[in-house]
Amino acid sequence: RNTGRAGGINPDSGGVIDAKNLRVKLVLLGDSGVGKSCIVLRFVRGQFDPTSKVTVGASFLSQTVALQDSTTVKFEIWDTAGQERYAALAPLYYRGAAVAVVVYDITSPESFTKAQYWVKELQKHGSPDIVMALVGNKADLQEKREVPVQDGIDYAEKNGMFFIETSAKTADNINQLFEEIAKRLPRPSPT
Ligand code: GDP
Q1: Rounded CA Rg of the chain
Q2: How far, in Å, CA of 44 to CA of 155, rounded?
Q3: What are the beta bridge partners of residue 25?
Q4: Which atom, in ligand 1's list, is nearest to the CA of 172?
Q5: What is the residue with the minimal CA distance to atom 18 of ligand 1?
């Protein structure tokens, strides 16, 4: 079931493969160091491997989620590879994205503030029907927590986002994150 691989597909591709199978572009946004690459590698390869980062832009991994109603969603997951620092590039990056996952680190209030900046950017420049998720990562570091879970819940609710706390390190809620997104994607009505 592991379909992770790099490159080869038109970045603007996406949408419906057939009535039951979707293919969508998913972008990750958030401060450098919050764990975006680790979340993707955990989801796609089932590993926690902080050393095998994507080091160049314009590369992605894909992974398919099968839902209980036998529909599937193939995520084409784009990693910023550090380009989140260059705000001017961002609209190019999330063009055509059906899903945006905005990540912060629960031990870093600065990263939570930055996440809110990205949400505003997406609201301004993203596709109007984009599905947005807010992710508080590094949930294994409870003793170092500085962002209360309720702050994440409240912000996400106000902005119509799905919210979850994850740990790429322990794998907690990583699959759930992508499954919940898959369930929330708009589907073409059957004809
Ligand atoms: P990115 O810059 O957002 O892509 O962040 P990375 O995925 O490179 O992760 C940055 C650092 O955070 C790495 O050193 C990881 O080891 C660490 N990290 C990522 N996810 C977790 C997590 O869930 N728990 C803990 N404890 N550390 C994590």
Answers
A1: 16
A2: 28
A3: 76
A4: 23
A5: 35
- The contacts of residue 33 (CB under 8 Å, 6+ apart) are 105, 111
Q: Is there an atom of ligand 1 within 6 Å of 138 CB?
A: yes
pTM to 2 decimals?
0.88
Per-residue pLDDT of the chain (191 residues; tens, 9 = 90+): 444 433 333 344 456 667 788 999 999 999 989 999 899 999 988 888 777 665 444 457 889 999 988 899 999 998 765 555 666 667 777 888 999 999 999 999 999 999 999 999 999 988 999 999 999 999 999 999 999 999 999 999 999 999 999 999 999 999 999 999 999 998 776 66
Instruction: Indicate whether residue 62 lines ligand 1 (CB < 6 A).
Output: no
Q: How far apart are CA 24 and CA 116, in angstroms?
A: 23
Pocket of ligand 1, candidates 38, 56, 106: which has the most ligand atoms within 8 Å of its Cβ, to mutate?
38
Which residue from 3, 25, 42, 7 is spatially nearest to 135, judged by alpha carbons?
42
User: Which positions ≥6 away from 41 have C-beta within 8 Å?
Assistant: 47, 48, 49, 52, 61, 168
Ligand 1 centroid from CA 15, angstroms: 30
Helices marked H in 14-63 — which ranges? 36-45
